[in-house]
Amino acid sequence: MLRRYGPKFVVLVVLISLLIGGIGTSAAQGQVTIRFFHKWPEPEHMDYYNWVIEEFEKAYPNIKIEMEAVADEPYKDKIRVVMASGDVPDIFFSWAGEFSWKFARAGRALPLDEYVYGTDWENDLIMSATVPYQWDGKLYGLPMRINAKFMVYNKEHFEKYGLSAPTTWDEFLAVCATLKENKVIPIAFGNEFPWASSHYVGDFNAKLVPGDVIAADYLLQGEADTLFTHPGYVEALARFKLLNDEGYFNEGANALQHSLARASFIAGRAGMFYMELEEFQQVADQMGADAFGFFPFPSGTGGEGDQNLLTGAPDGFMVSAETKHPEEAITFLRFMLSPERGAEYVRMLGIPSAVAGAVNEETALPIVVAGVEAINQASGMALWLDTDIDIRIVEVYLPGMQALLTGSESPESIMAKVHEAAVKIQAELAQEG
After folding, report:
1. pLDDT tens-digit series, residues 11-31
2. Domains annotated on the chain, with CATH
3. Cβ-count burial of 264 within 10 angstroms (0-12 exposed, 13-18 middle, 19+ buried)?
């Protein structure tokens, strides 16, 4: 058909086609894809992130967000595989403390200081929640939410047996004994994944061991022969063991998931449950916001640590140092960690956001607001033990906690193995220079 119009027309058509193709190619090249990897695949969380992404892509049509999510335990393994492969997502979730610091030390995370400090964004974030993401004077992560662990209690059981929120370790044990005497499981506990026991032991450690000793041990910066040898570590495990030996935990804790233990508490079978603030909304939805109360776990009475600490940490995101699109990655994070999205995060999920002012009487239940106030009144946060120490020590420590509940390990034997592992790892790090 084209031949009837002659060669000049053919050339013109070809030029126009090339021009149109070039325009299409340029448009495609202007599209940026940001890979976003996190640990919340649950439907309610995905609803929130899908909403954020949809709103973001409307506002920034040249940026596409490609999201992947896997659950808590699998995430720990997958992020290590991803890092080893070199195919690192532009934005990835990381727990605060040592879990994030190892990425900073290895040069795998982008320093974020210039994007935050001295900008309007600094006013939008709870800046104290950024501290656990700082390493060697630089900021490597941004907090998405704040969280802490509290002992919650069934008000009906406490009223029935004349109990009140304990403020010392001895008072806590007395509450446990009363509940047990009245055929109520004192504490619902699921330890199939032993991060649950590490939250107990980490809280004991923080309150039984001096803070400077913990810092030196956790960071492997102390003298080799003193690493993890303070008697408070053994006492921490002994107190944890006592709760099990006295029958204050439900039977078969090592075979029970945390979520099933929570369900037992909600059903009224247990008097107490050691629970994260982010779980308050879920429990309130199922048993009523007025059916339970909370108190800081008085785990370390008589210890050398800080009794006003709370176990917990912010959760947040890091940006890959290898990203080809740092500006676009930061643009997405700033969009997500804005007052509007922070407030909606609290409304949709009932989880405290790290955005300043996001948790208030309009967005959250009174008990959640009270939990945030308790965090603000605490002297500081003892970060989650399983993400605050070297993973190679975690792999010794946590199985030991499970073995402690079965009676196959003692507090002394566990800490001897932890000490041995710490000394070995410290020497290896020194050789690596």
Report:
1. 444 344 444 444 333 334 589
2. 32-146+313-376 (3.40.190.10), 149-311+390-432 (3.40.190.10)
3. middle
